[in-house]
């Protein structure tokens, strides 16, 4: 349910940003990312329903949600699941972005590993961690290229 709520928020923010003149970059990989996340959730649903839950690993997953909400709160109306660039808008450098460049990707990578491990599904954790890493290589490259154009224009 959380992921569905995030998709609704992302769609709303994307529409609003586009109405303000924002453009999307790296859209080619977006269906791959959505498919991978959906397959991860389906695999957890199908294979994890009868599994015993490790309370420590589940607690780690729950704690990650605090970092996720910190990211969402920091980006506010600029948060979306797509790479949306708003010309003229400064880069976000507050909240977790003071410490790392892509905190949401760190959260997602940890979730993709931790939740299957909490359900004693190490193969699912390994497979989807690898798939997520492959998608993130593509995504971070596209995002970094787009954002480097913004940071160059801010320093010029």
UniProtKB/TrEMBL annotation:
Lineage summary: Bacteria, Pseudomonadati, Pseudomonadota, Alphaproteobacteria, Hyphomicrobiales
Chief place of localization: membrane
Protein name as it appears in the record: Methyltransferase
Pfam families registered for this protein in UniProt: ICMT
Compartments, record wording: Membrane
InterPro entries noted in UniProt: ICMT_MeTrfase
The entry's keywords: Membrane, Transmembrane, Transmembrane helix
Membrane topology: Multi-pass membrane protein
Transmembrane segments: 112-138
